[in-house]
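Feature request disguised as a bug: please show the residue count (1209) next to TonB-dependent transporter Oar-like beta-barrel domain-containing protein in the output. Example input:
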Amino acid sequence: MSQNISIKAAINTFSVASAATKYASVRNILRLLCLAVLFLSASTVFGQEFTGRVTDPSGAAVSKAKVTVTNQDTGVAVSTATTGSGDYTVPYLRPGLYALTAEAQGFSQEARTQITLQVGQTAVINFTLKVGSISETVTVQSDEALLAGSGDVGEVVENTRVTELPLNAGNAMTLATLSAGTSLYADPKYQRPFDDIQADLSINGGGAGNSQILLDGVSNEAAHGDAYNGTNGQIGYIPPTEAVGEFKIITNPYSAEFGRASGGVIDMTLKNGTNTVHGSVYEFARRTFLDANSWANNFSGNPKTSQRRDQYGAELDGPVVFPKLYNGRDKTFFLLQFENFTNTDPGTLIVSVPQPEWFNGDFSKLTYYDVASKSYKPEIIYDPLTLHDNGSGVLVRDPFPGNIIPASRINPVAQKILSFYPSPNLPSTAGLNTWVSNYQTPQPLVDVYRNVLAKIDQNISSKDRLTLRYGYWERSETQNYNGIPGAAAQGEYPHGERSNTFATDWVHTFTPNLLFDFRASVIVRGNIAETGPANFDITSLGLPPSLVSELGIFANHFPSIGASEFTTLGNSGGQLTIGNSLAMLPSVTWVKGKHTIHAGIDWRILQDSTRGVQGGMSLSTDRSWTQANYNTGDPASGNSIASFLLGTANSGSINISPNIFFSQHYYAPFVQDDWKVTPRLTLNLGIRYDLNEPPVDRHNRADYGFDTEVVNPVNSQIDQSALPNGPVKGGMTFVGVNGNPRAFYSATKTDIQPRFGFAFAVDDRTVLHGGFGVMYRNPNPGPNQYGFSSTTSYVGSNDGGKTPIPQSVSNPYPTVIQPTGSSLGYLTALGQGPYFINPHYRTPQFQTFSVGMQHRFLKNDTLEINYVGTRTYHNDSNDNINRIAATAYANCNILLGGDPSRCDSAAGSYVKNPFYQAPAFQGTGYYTASTIQAIQLTRPFPEFTDIQEYQLNNGRSWYNAMQATAMHQWNKSLTLHATYTWSKTMDSGGYADQIYRIPSRNIDSLDATHAVTLSGVWLLPVGRGQYFLGNMNRVLDEVIGGWEFGSLYTYRSGFPWQLNGSTQYVSNAWVPRQADPTIANSIRGVKPCAAQYVQQNDGSYVLTPIQSNCGGSYNFIVNPRYGAEQNVIYSGIRNPGTWDWDINLAKSFAIYGRLHLQLRLEAFNVPNHPIFAGSYDNGPLDAGFGTINKTSGQTNQPRQAQLGAKFLW
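Example output, currently without the count:
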């Protein structure tokens, strides 16, 4: 193994940046930085702009009128002239407060002031000039622009809500959910600034992680998960809340400037420095005494776990002034921000652990809960080496006498591994098996996070403006996931990240109606993950040194051991990932007559490298080796710990993955024309072309495809007489070999994207808008390095699971398969299950469309209602091209008149293995087993197991919704906002059952029918300068003035309940959600009426109730072996919905001049409402089938509160 990297050393020093220097290409990073300086461009929202028309009193157009737009905070002014049609557009502006003037010879000058321009807004300001002297000025004060001239559907979260709504951990991005159609699926515990919630954010059914993320109009997407994993990447930089100006969510983008996404666009803008110095110093403190206890702690009678969080920082912005040296007012402005976040979150983890006496083989007290009789009954342990025919052709096992495994049968390696389990510390729960949820441990989450930001805005001249920005953050996190202390722990030990972001923007004005814009962003992000303690001596478990020597960098980690129904032991090692991204875009804006034309080319370069890919050694076991019937499970027999203690496992692997370095290039020219057809009608017409090249590995470490026609050279090593269909065919191919291209699929060259939008002003208060657009999201290449990685699978049986290989856990991997790259050619992966990417993969297409109405009832009351639809075509899907013949399966399917013994125990079900002892199959079960299941030889390529082909483009999804948004503002002291979304998302593609070719079509697993958000900020209009008692004295004002209240409420209905794939859904099993009296602390939402086919002593199969006979009427039937998996479109059952209510109460105190102090109390989950483990149990054999058990703990956080203090000026 050639992976020589000390992950632990890198973590100890938290040296992501130095690791990037060491393992990523310094030369390439420098090239990216140089390109950024040279090109100064990026994927961008074309800023904000004013547009409108200048007319005379008769309505005739006034051409060549001078329109001046002045930022009232910075004094920076930009001028343009109207076209022959009287139209003007001033693009590339920053959000802020503006004044506009229009003047022409023979007319009085008209001025508009106090106009707020929001992020991404096209504000329509029309002028009607009066006849008179140009020296005369008519001034109109306004704080509202007319409704935008665009068909886009979107939402602006203004600065008031960003800074004054309660934000748990201060991540402004979470407020994206205040836009209708936007869903955030992230665990409430993990919505902090560094948690990459973009990966869990979906807009209008476009899929989580598929939206475009911008910061100040510049691409803000890191390469991680981009070039290699196919999402739109992790977020490069999240600014502290104090530095955020506002942000916009465009849920239906129709402008051609947007692309490479399936969903929406989120553009966050930073504050801009002004001619007045502003700033803040703040601290938010969270302590244990402010919090409620968790439900699990209250249930167990335990006190609150300790918590301490401090989030403090400072923000400063203003003009750059050096007394007597440089006065930057009206020219040079700065923004500086620092934030530190240290946190220990309370957490309680409840898991299931074995009883200590089991480790010595004593299962005499083992029982299970029988739902039908509502009593505990013995659970019997059977000896897997006693399998015999009962005389009727049925294979049965004998139980261990007294339910005790003899000491001579206990495997010492397994016993040593199991000794790392702690002893139970919780009593059993009535109605559940006695070992369920019997161990509780604190699960604190320890995080340290720092964030630094600097920005300079330079008004070089009336024709040139320049912005430079640098952002940096780092964090380290430690948390236990499996509840196991010591070497067998699993979690973050620690997880470290570091990100550097550079961005720049240069706007040049050639003429008043021709402007040029260059923007760029460079993001270098590193990620170190260690999933468990290192420096463990794995030989101390009794494993042979010959095996340990093959584990390479994973030899110092406890192996990952999974026992069904119990928490996992061990971990999978660590890895280091570095991602580099450069996004550039030169663009031009030309105002010609009634047309505003934007054109540019979006160009990105992405690199993603990984070293020390997580893998290592794993073993998994379940009850099947110790259950009564070797091929049919039942709750009355078998135990996974007993199975493992006998030295047997069911599955496992040693995975060795290569170091990777992928690069990807993206080019997208576009043209957008905003055409003011009439003063009331604007059309948005655009077209975009994407060339999204596939990722290429620097060292050609990738598969290209599977050759289905070639005769495999292994034929010379195998017994041809045992092959029913003659010589075997098929083999893996590789990129850059034998004339294959370096990319593992061909670039799609037909991704043309038309865009159309319209906005029609019915009157000054009502606008109809809508549109249609096509986008192509970033391709998802998936796994494609099988020859350069290797998987050595655990072989626990040579007869299809009837009997185990005794004591195989002592040396579970006698031969470890090492990666061979492309050197073996068609001999690669023999006896294994390779995978590859469809060489003809097409980029998934996303269509978005809407029609709606926006109406302003009063000056500050608006309502918007839209019908929104999206369609996604060519979605990723996969298929097994090496399927066992369906006719062979049907011959063993009792539902089709078959007999399972024909496949696994009857004469002829096992035949001579043609691959036995063939050298090319070493390290696999094909090499060690002298016989093989006859049905395995019905595969088209029997020398392999399953062969998965990914990215088959057979998937499709569709989304339909009614979305409503209401907004109320009163005198700048009250802001109320509400949204409602009623939607449905459906998916199709791939197969519910690949062998029987049953296609998949169902309601999306994250479909939520209803979603509601309510938010508000109310500065009580009482006190000095306010609406009420505005002249009160200062002393009284310090008591009753300056109070503010903020509130945020969200609700989302439950997701569809997902049925276990091996279970048939017969009829409606929904029941009203209620407590189940038979199972303590449980919530039932599904009828438990399930049955399975049980083989009788005479060999027949009888449908038998599993837990409750329900009068012989069953809602669920467990599939018999070799049965087909059903496609369940919708069971009619939904898991419980979720809701949350957070508040903020603040009081401001005037200190001196503009300096004031704000004290805050923020509370999250105010009613202390627990949301329990999100899904009803879907295992029919489980005692809690159809219920959610509260003892598993809550998925949200208990009520938490924090105190805050801000000095602001």
